C-alpha cells in the first residue's frame, strides 16, 4: 500500500497548530482555535471519521460563548454558502443567540423537523419567530409554533404561504381568533382552509371579513325553494333557548301556523310592535332553522347573520332594515349606528342571493354557531364600523 506522505504531513501540521492554539487561553487564542476547528470541520469533511467529527463539534460547541458574535456570524455565512456543510455545526449554531442563529433558522436545509421542534421548545420566541419565516414548514413544525402561544409567531405562520397546517391546527387557531383579532385575516386567506373554519370564524370576525366570508365561501347553493315561506314541522334545536322564545314558539307561532297566518306580514307586525320573542320564533320556523340559531342571528349587532335569514324568507330590503333597526332598539345598544354602516349592510343585503343565503343557512344548521360570550361577533363588527 502506497502511503500519501503529503496528507500525513498536513494532518500532523494541523494537529500541532491546534495544540498550540489550545494552550493559548486568551480570547484571541480561543477565537483562532474556534475558526481553525470550524475550517477543519467544513473543509476536511471527507477526511474526518465519525469520532473525530463528534470530538470537534463538541469543542466548537464549548467555544461558542468564548468568541465574538461577528466571528460566529461569519461561520454561519460560510455554512449557508456551502451546500455540503456539516449538519452538526448547523445544529450547534442554530441554538446560539438570535443574531447568530437567525439566518440558519430561516434558511438552513440541514435542520430536521425534530431539530426545529426542539429549538422552538428550548429557545423561546425570537427563535420561533425566525423559524416561522422558513420557505416551507411541515405540519409538525407549525403545530409546535402554535403551541408556543406567541401571537406574533402565529401570525407569521399564518402569513407564510409555505406553511402547512393540520386540520386540527386550523380549527385551534380559529378558536383563538375569537380573542386575538390579528389571527382573523391571515387565517382566512391561508391556503387549504377547511370549509367549516370560515363558518366558525364568521361569528367573531370584523364586518369586512364577515362579508368576505359570506361572499366567497365555497358552498353548494343548489336551487332555492320557490315558495317565499314554507311552514313545516319545528326543526330540531340542539342548543338552549330562552324561556320567552320557547313559550312564543309553543303557543303563538303554533297557533299562527295552524291557522295559516304565519307569513311575512305577521313577522313584520311582530317587528313593528317590538315583540322580539315571537319574531325570532317566527323567523326560525319560516327559515326552517333551529331556534337557537335564529336567536343568535337576531341578537348579533353586526346584522350579517340576520341578513342571511331575512334573505332566506325573502323579506324586502326595506323590511330587513326595519327588522334590523327594531332589534337594535330593543337590545338598547348604546353605540349609534352610523348611516354609512347601515348603507354598507344594505348593500350586502342587495348582493346576497336567496340561493346563497339558503346554502349558508344549511351550513349553519350543520355547524351550529359557538355560544356568544360578549367578546365575539357583535363587538368586532361594531369596532369595524
Explained architecture:
There is one protein chain. It is built from 24 helices and no strands. The chain is mostly helical. The protein has 3 domains: 11-93, no CATH class; 112-194; 243-384, no CATH class. The protein is rod-shaped. Mean pLDDT is 77; it is low at 1-13, 18-24, 226-239 and 374-385.
The SS-based structural class is mainly alpha
Uncertain runs with pLDDT below 50, 5 residues or more? 1-13, 18-24, 226-239, 374-385
Q: Provide a count of the helices.
A: 24
The gross shape turns out to be rod-shaped
**Proportion of β residues?**
under 5%
Average pLDDT confidence is 77
Task: Give the count of structural domains.
Answer: 3
The biggest beta sheet is recorded as: none
Helix-residue proportion: 55-70%
Please report the total strand number as a whole number.
0
Radius of gyration (Å): 32 Å
Distance between the termini: 85 Å
Helix-strand topology string:
HHHHHHHHHHHHHHHHHHHHHHHH
What's the topology here?
Blueprint: H1 5-23, H2 27-43, H3 50-63, H4 69-81, H5 87-93, H6 98-107, H7 113-123, H8 125-131, H9 139-147, H10 151-159, H11 167-176, H12 184-188, H13 196-202, H14 207-216, H15 243-250, H16 252-258, H17 264-272, H18 276-287, H19 291-299, H20 304-312, H21 317-330, H22 339-351, H23 354-366, H24 377-384
Helix pairs in contact: 1-2, 2-3, 3-5, 4-6, 6-8, 7-8, 7-9, 11-13, 13-14, 15-16, 15-18, 17-18, 18-19, 19-20, 20-23
